[in-house]
Amino acid sequence: MGKRLRVSKSICSCASPRFSSAPIASFSRHDMDIWTEIAKYLDGKSLMMLAATNKWFFSTLMDDSIWKFACLRDLQVPDSPEVRFKWSKLYASAFGGSHSYSFRQKEKHIDWMRIGAFSFDSPDAFLMENLICPPKLPTEDTVQKMLDSDGSCILHNIKTGIWIADLQLVRCPVCDLNTCDGTMQVLDARHLELFLNDGFVNGSWGYELVGSHDIKRHVNSASGGILDVKHFKSPYTADLFNLKSWVGKSNDWQPKAMVTYNAVAINTNLQDNDGLHIKYHVMMSGDTGEVVAIRISQQLL
């Protein structure tokens, strides 16, 4: 028989763990830094759903810095200068499904599509009815003279910051037929804050005609552009004039659009026609007189 293995009591007692009687530190289930990082991957609807779960998430996710990040991310624009409204409201205004015809002239509206967002870094805009880069900017002293000269013009006192651009399909102004297929397209651009201003909501701010122009011959397409004059010669703006990269082929009748950091343009190929009637409208703020919205409408003659 082999010898029995004897285990020392001292060894056995040392093997037993000793637990401290000190209280366990409190642990929070919510880490603000973690959820702030997670919020960067959520859209506005998801942010609101999560914020509605409890008070902690509401106070964390309704922080304006989170909504600013979401707004700039989804609009795909660089950082913006100071804004007058909370970013959560600006996000809702931008992505709530509203457009300028939602508030007025609903009976004339047919369809629309969101083009995207761009920025005005300067208070000067260049508007054109064709997408051929001119060798120089117009120098005539009035908008109408500029349009009569080469179908483009410069507007001053533009409200700087982020602008949103939509393409609208609208019934022609003189048509009252519900069966009208729509013979007018509108490049519709507005400042990000426009829908939150009382002057716009109550209708005291309206669109004013600043110039018009007729092309009394067949045209292959209806096109238009809005550029920040400061970035007229920038590489990003040059992409607008590279028509092969985004304009549809001659038998493609679907509207096409292009947006860069500081410009936007549209193009729709046309079938047989007698020309276009083009109008330029602006809306000005009643407080500062700054231009806060621009429309370029193109109607078949």
TrEMBL record:
Per its record, how is this protein called by name? Answer: F-box-like domain superfamily protein
Give GO BP annotations, semicolon-separated. reproductive system development
GO annotation, cellular component aspect: nucleus
InterPro entries linked: F-box-like_dom_sf
**SUPFAM superfamilies the UniProt entry points to:** F-box domain
